[in-house]
């Protein structure tokens, strides 16, 4: 059964590789091949390991081991599939791709040090904004699911959502376990606040798999804006302060810095 699943997955992967090779370049196909091969490996090994575990004589131990296996493989497959999806969606036939450092743990959002660099070097005539996002009651979520399950089933989903939100309008960065930031390099204050509302609402509606299926997550969002040609060195600090204000006002809300 496991072998059949892996074979079917590999057939789908080969179709994707063919499209990539024809539309883009063989070098891109080779890079994507590594990701897809890993996905097939996990599809195959998952079934094999589950069959082996069922041979154990202790039912409670079997249940425990299967649970741990489910979390581990789900996390690995989600990260691999996310990498492959974002890689394909990010391909452009007529322009070179500029690699950006990613947060090492999940490899989805940009690394935190890039935020200061982007603020200093990338901005447009409409102004710029930073959104500071903090997961509400994160310790309680960790306690309820365990840190392992949160890392495998919850945080990657949130990170992928934010990566999709900022596509073509800015960048999203991983600040810490429960904190993320967004930089919008060319926007009005009204637009930045609307993005904040969309992020808050979107995260509250996310669904998580396996053991986290019944988990719901909310966030508090702070927004700081600087008009074109205005100082921007305090944007991150101001967005963080606005986020703290949102938490103080009851969480699951957005607050602009300065009450604008």
How would you describe the overall organization of this protein?
There is one protein chain. The protein is of the alpha/beta class and 260 residues long. It has two domains: 2-89; 110-259, Reverse transcriptase/Diguanylate cyclase domain (Alpha-Beta Plaits), CATH 3.30.70. It has eight helices and six strands, in the order αααβαβααββαβαβ. The protein has helices at 2-23, 26-53, 59-89, 113-121, 138-145, 147-165, 189-204, 235-248; strands at residues 110-111, 128-135, 171-174, 179-184, 219-226, 254-256. The protein has a six-stranded mixed beta sheet with strand order 1-3-4-2-5-6, sandwiched between helices. The chain is elongated.
Contiguous runs where pLDDT drops below 50 for at least 5 residues: 19-29, 91-97
**Please, what is the oligomeric state?**
single chain
Which structural category fits the helices and strands?
A: alpha/beta
Q: CATH class of the largest domain, anyone?
A: Alpha Beta
Going by CATH, what is the homologous superfamily of the largest domain?
Reverse transcriptase/Diguanylate cyclase domain
Number of H/I helices: 8
Beta content: 5-15%
Strands side by side in the biggest sheet:
1-3-4-2-5-6
Helix fraction by DSSP (H/I, runs of at least 4): 55-70%
Rounded average pLDDT: 78
What gross morphology would you assign? elongated
Strand tally is: 6
Organism: Usitatibacter rugosus
EC number: 2.7.7.65
GO biological process, one term: negative regulation of bacterial-type flagellum-dependent cell motility
Domain GGDEF: 126-259
